[in-house]
Amino acid sequence: MAIDERERNDTTELLVLAYRAADGLAFKYGYTDLSSQIITAMRLAASQVDQPFLAAAVAYVRTEMFFAVRDLETAHRSLVRAIDRIPATRSTVDSEAARGSLAMRAAVVSARAGKAEEAGDHLAEAYRAAEHTPEGVYLGTAFGPASVRIHEVAVAQELGDSPTAVQRGTGWHPPRELPAERRSHFYIDLAPAQLEVGRPDDAFASLQLAKSVAPLHSREHPRVKAALRSLLRGQRTVSDELATFAAWADVS
Question: Which of 138, 132, 139 is nearest to 19 (CA)?
Answer without folding.
Answer: 139
